[in-house]
Amino acid sequence: MAGNREMEVLGRYVATELLLELGRYVATELWLELGRYVATELWLELGCYVATERNMCSFSA
């Protein structure tokens, strides 16, 4: 009986560790994707702003 209890405890430990690792991986992947999206959106917005400002300056010059 002690063997079954030890396996149960070990199983919980392994399951917990796997869930924590999976959670870290998913969180990291989501953070990286979010970071890429935000960086891309900011880059696009900055590019539009710079292009717009340059066009406005060229017309007024």
List the helices and strands and how they pair.
Elements: H1 2-60
DSSP strand content: under 5%
Instruction: Please give the count of helices.
Output: 1
Q: Radius of gyration in whole Å, from Cα? A: 26 Å
Distance between the termini: 89 Å
Quick one: overall form?
rod-shaped
Report the structural category: mainly alpha
For the largest beta-sheet, the strand count, sense and barrel status come to: none
Quaternary structure type: single chain
Query: What are the segments in which pLDDT stays under 50 over at least 5 consecutive residues?
Result: none
- State the helical fraction: over 70%
Please trace the helix and strand order, writing H or E for each element: H
The average pLDDT score comes to: 77
Could you give the count of β-strands?
0
